[in-house]
Amino acid sequence: MPWSTAFDDPVRASHKRKLLTLQDAADYIMQLPEDAQHEVHWQTAIETLINAAETGGGWVMFARIAMLRALNADGRGQ
After folding, report:
1. pLDDT on residue 76
2. How many other C-beta atoms can be found within 10 angstroms of the C-beta atom of residue 25?
3. What are phi and psi of 11, to 5 degrees?
4. Which residues have C-beta within 8 Å of that of residue 52, sequence separation ≥ 6?
5. At 14, is the secondary structure helix, strand, or coil?
6. Residue 42 contacts by C-beta under 8 Å, 6 or more apart in sequence?
7. Per-residue pLDDT, 52
8. How far apart are CA 41 and CA 57, in angstroms?
9. Could you name the domain of life of the organism this protein comes from (predicted)?
10. CA atoms within 13 A on the CB side of 77
11. What CA–CA distance (Å, rounded) separates 75 from 2?
12. Could you read off the pLDDT of 36-52 as tens digits, one per residue?
């Protein structure tokens, strides 16, 4: 599946920002400070995003869940 694959429901990263696709989520993670990117919850999100891009199917849903969990773990999710 391409990185442009959309989530079934957008991931709200803030009051103003929604992540619509796998690429949006990957770009969001890449904009985090490097030390934050290495935290376990962000590493899990990265792994599931890669699996979603490579495999598709249920992995897209898992990637969305991993992003929501990582955002909530950091207190970033709204």
Report:
1. 65
2. 26
3. -100, 120
4. 1, 5, 22, 59, 60, 62, 63
5. coil
6. 29, 32, 36, 70, 74
7. 97
8. 22
9. Bacteria
10. 15
11. 29
12. 999 999 999 999 999 99
